Amino acid sequence: MFTTSRLARGGLLVALSLVLYIVEGLIPVPFIVPGAKLGLANIVTVVALAMLGPRDAFVIVTLRTFLASLITGNLTSFWFSLAGAILSTLVMSLAYIRFREAFSLAGISILGGIFHNIGQLFVASIVVGTYGIYSYLPLLLVAGTCTGYFVGLAASLIIQAMRSNPVFPLYMHDAQDMKDVQAGHQHIQTPYPGNRRERENTARQVTAGQVAK
Known about the structure:
Elements: H1 4-26, H2 42-52, H3 54-72, H4 78-98, H5 105-128, H6 137-163, H7 175-183, H8 196-212
Helix pairs in contact: 1-2, 1-3, 2-3, 2-4, 2-6, 3-4, 4-5, 5-6
C-alpha cells in the first residue's frame, strides 16, 4: 500500500537520483571500458532498497532511468540503462531478502554493480549482433566491483546519518519489525547495516523517542 509519506519519500529519492545522474555526467572520469560509470545515482537505489523495500526500489529505478533518458534526450540508451538497472535491482533485492545477514550493504551493492554491467552488455550484444563484445566482461566485472563498493559504502553512511536525524525517522518496510520492538521481542530484522544487536538497540531507541514525544 502506497501511503502519502511513502509516495513523498519515493518522489524525493527519484529527484535525488536524477540530480546525481546529471552531476555524474559533468564529472570527467576516464574509464577505459565502454559503458563503465561511477553510478552515483545507484546510491539512491541502494538507500531505497534499505528504506522502502524492493518494490519501491524497482519503481524508483525505473522512473529514474526513464526520466534521465528524457532529460538527456538520449532515448537510444534507455534500453541499455533499463536492462542494467532492472537486473541489478533484482539481484540486490534477492540478496537483501534472502542473505541479509550474510552480506553487508556494500556487498549487496557490489552484486548490483556487477550485474548492472552484465545487463547492459547483454543488450549491447543483441543490438550489435555479435558475442565478441563479451570480451569486455572481465574489465566490466572489475569496474562493477569497484564502483559497487563505493556506492554501497556511501549508501551505508547516508543511512547511518538518517538514522540519527529526527527529520528522517527510522523506517521499517516490514510493519512486524516495529511491533516486535514495541513488544520487547529479542529477535527483529531491520533493513539497516550493522549486527543484530546494534539494529535492535537503534530500533528501541527510536521507539522510545517516539513514545516520549
